[in-house]
Amino acid sequence: MRALCWFGKEDVRLQEVPDPTIINPHDAIIEVNLTAICGSDLHLYDGYIPTMESGDILGHEFMGKVVEVGPEVQNLKVGDRVVVPFPIACGHCHHCHTDEFALCDNSNPNAWMAERSFGHSPAGIFGYSHLYGGYAGGQAEYVRVPFADVGPIKVPDTLSDEDVLFLSDIFPTGYQAVDVANIQPGSTVAVWGCGPVGLFAIKSAYMLGAEKVIAIDHVPERLAMARHQAGAEVLNFTDDPILEALKEMTDGRGPQTCIEAVGMEAHGTGLMDYYDKAKQTLRLETGRPHALREAIMACAKGGTLVVPGVFGGIIDKLPIGAAFSKGLTFKMGQTHVHRYLKPLLARIEKNEIDPSFLITHRLTLEDGPEAYKTFRDKQDECVKVVMRP
Amino acid sequence: MVQTSTNHAQHTPMIEEEERALERTASPDTEPGLQELGWPAIGVGTAMATWAIARQHGLKQILFAAAGAGLIYTGLKPGFDKGFKRLLANTAATEPVEIDITTTIARPASELYHMWRDPEQIPRFFRHIKRVEHLGERLTRWVAKVPGDMELCWNAEITEDKQDELIAWRSIEGSELVSSGVVSFFNLDDGQTRVHLRLRYQPPGGEFGAAIERFFKAIPEQILREELRAFKQLAEAGEVATVRGQPYGGTQNREQGLSMLTNR
Ligand SMILES: [Zn+2]
Ligand SMILES: [Zn+2]
């Protein structure tokens, strides 16, 4: 089959590789109908995620058709059309039992490695480094899906591939960011980053009762999308002094919920940004936490700060004193996608949201290597790339 | 401002019982002769398997030690039986090693106890063990894989067996390494089970030097941690997570690179 493989920093190639096979009894093989490049794939592309190996198959956002099931799979059969969550969860450990699927104890074959880095191991993830299990990803014609009874959700024929693809990650990720903040009716939510996760966070905030959502970015077409498609008030951080503007827009209190949907490669302005870039280049810190710092400073007293963007290692110069003094609550982590599949599929079926609104590029796997570059450089007004194998 | 203190050693009756069980396994002969050398039933094979596992899959941290082991193995191969047993006999100068690992498993203690007592199940999670033969109510013969298509056998006697709670054992005559161990299963309030494994053994040393002793001290714990993890995965999820055998973009260096990273 053909697959997009990682060969190093800024080096993604389309390769002919063997077809995946059933390895464990709860595996299924999915023929991929549609797959996407995620913002967090760009951290791999830019070489910021350690433990990638030459030849690793990329991709954790995909959907398709079941073509083979292992001997112990009971909930799926050949021919089922499914969307697959990006974290891999066994369904039977303590964390799976408590709906914390992205913290599954049993799905990371390299758990020892993650324990060295993090103290404990999170779940395995498709196509996202050996630290997260080294699983082959879904930017390919076929993909092996472990624990197939637990992850994949069947989707009705009435919905198109594009309607359901983003259940694999970015829709639940944006939704969870708001859900875990437990927002009160009438509250204000600020979202840093109007990429795909930020856009879904904005839409989700309105679904869950926010009065006002303020979106912050610097890419004009993304700000336009946040305003026109998602209904946010927008701030461009190259023009507006964000902290003052946010205070102004919230009667001096600051947003009660701040969502940092940028992650480890945040862009900022000013001296601190150069400091972070220099350190990141030297690998002294692994993230550029500009947006995170700003969100801490902006957040209302007693407010909640949510971090759905990916952070991989160590950052510094975090104003922890501000967070402490204002009594902030932090919520962060990978998305427990499984938890949201049914309710969000129901919202799509009821036409409460059309998740395909942010697709700007409809391509094939052949276009993949070029698409990574286009997406990373935000050229061609690129917001979301989907590819059909 | 609140000062917190950590209550490090959780002194439960269970742990005292494990302690007593482990003491009772102590062999009367502390300087074993050639015939009754022993490692812990599990620890032995663990160390043996390390040679195979470390060379083919590898843990990054132990590559150095593994390379050393490879050399010993090469050196031993021509006269394996004689040489190896001499190596094992040479424990007089070494410090005994104790391995202590705990995990929590979301299955009832009784189920885990039965998995541990089932000779058929054991090779599924102790992956270096070829088979376990039932010799009697309290006697088992363990056969481990050793590189070069060889086998290593030892006999373990169960010294204490409390159904659903605790199993203690030690090596006996006819074994090649001195060892003892205890595993306990303790029902926690939330329906999970704490599994606590403790092993004692004497690493070989003597003429093979301090580096070898260090290797045998460091590696079995790494391997045992992975095997206890496999035990948990089998018990909870019914399979052991793996990516071995999946496709990737072909490069010549790939397998070599992966051996630095991947465990399974
Ligand atoms: Zn993603
Ligand atoms: Zn699990």
UniProtKB/TrEMBL annotation, chain A:
Its cofactor is Zn(2+). Gene3D superfamilies: Medium-chain alcohol dehydrogenases, catalytic domain (3.90.180.10), NAD(P)-binding Rossmann-like Domain (3.40.50.720). Pfam families: ADH_N, ADH_zinc_N. Residues 8-387 form the Enoyl reductase (ER) domain. The keyword Metal-binding applies. Keywords: Metal-binding, Oxidoreductase, Zinc. One of its GO terms (molecular function) is oxidoreductase activity. PROSITE patterns: ADH_ZINC. Coiled coil: none annotated. It comes from the Bacteria. Belongs to the zinc-containing alcohol dehydrogenase family. This is Glutathione-dependent formaldehyde dehydrogenase.
TrEMBL record, chain B:
It holds the Pfam family Polyketide_cyc. Residues 1-37, 245-264 are annotated as: Disordered. Residues 1-10, 249-264 have a biased composition (Polar residues). InterPro entries: COQ10_START, ORF3, START-like_dom_sf. It comes from the Bacteria. Residues 105-223 form the Coenzyme Q-binding protein COQ10 START domain. This is Coenzyme Q-binding protein COQ10 START domain-containing protein. It comes from Lujinxingia vulgaris.
